[in-house]
Write a structure and sequence with these properties.
Helices cover about 35% and strands about 30% of the residues. The chain contains 7 helices and 10 strands. It has a 6-stranded mixed β-sheet, sandwiched between helices. A 4-stranded antiparallel β-sheet has the order 2-1-4-5, covered by helices on one side.
């Protein structure tokens, strides 16, 4: 469903991604790992067409993204649920209204809004926080709200960029359990992270990026019991 073919992306003299290739099948759960500056976020921004590759191809659901015109990009992004590290919630709107905005952009019939929003708020455990503003929520709650906004439009792919980056272990673990549950409902989930403990606990397919290159693409066995020490 998503394929990178020999993709290179440069910013001036810096090569952010260097001739990378990988394929993501429908329904997979994948970690993209690597240190800061490795190229993880660049991969995500190429998929959402915020950047375009200098060479190579990116294919989503059989369509080559480099052929998309600017006016087609919003339609492309409707296939994707993006969870940003800094949440990107609108501060002047309640959590309910933030999720409404995603439905409005996709032009979902208004009669469906309330049922959809209640469903995702219940899924992420924020049904009692719906009418609060982002400034009134904790970091973990903000991340859950961002996930709710991403999934309410029923995308085929959820792309979460460092979703546990600024959270304590217990909160981060809760976010990961939520993403796993979403994956088990049939969604493709791609998580970028540099948190090795999260990867060790949840396992699965891991694509390791370093200095703009894929240095490893392998399966990690899930730990059945995990003890965390601060």
């Amino acid at each position: 469903m998503l394929e990178f073919k020999n993709v290179t992306k440069r910013f001036g003299q810096i090569t952010a991604l260097d001739d990378i290739s990988f394929t993501v099948e429908s329904g997979e759960f994948i970690f993209v790992i690597g240190p800061s500056g490795a190229g993880k976020t660049t991969i995500m921004k190429l998929v959402i067409h915020e950047y375009t590759p200098d060479s190579g191809e990116i294919i989503l659901d059989g369509e080559p993204l480099h052929k998309f015109k600017s006016w087609q990009v919003p339609k492309l992004r409707q296939k994707l649920g993006i969870v940003f590290q800094d949440f990107k919630l609108l501060p002047s709107r309640t959590i309910y209204e933030n999720i409404e905005t995603a439905l409005a952009v996709k032009r979902v019939t208004k009669s469906e809004w309330d049922e959809r929003i209640k469903h995702v708020l219940n899924l992420v455990g924020l049904e009692n926080r719906a009418h609060l503003f982002p400034s009134q929520l904790s970091g973990g709650e903000l991340q859950r709200a961002a996930i709710a906004r991403a999934i309410v439009v029923n995308p085929s792919v959820i792309f979460a960029d460092e979703p546990t980056g600024n959270l304590d272990w217990e909160t981060a673990d809760g976010i990961m359990k939520l993403l796993v549950r979403i994956n088990e409902e049939g969604k493709t989930v791609i998580v970028t992270t540099h948190n090795q403990e999260i990867v060790a606990k949840y396992g699965g397919r891991v694509i390791e990026v370093r200095d703009g290159k894929i240095v490893n693409d392998h399966k990690v066995s899930k730990k059945h019991k995990h003890e965390h020490t601060s």
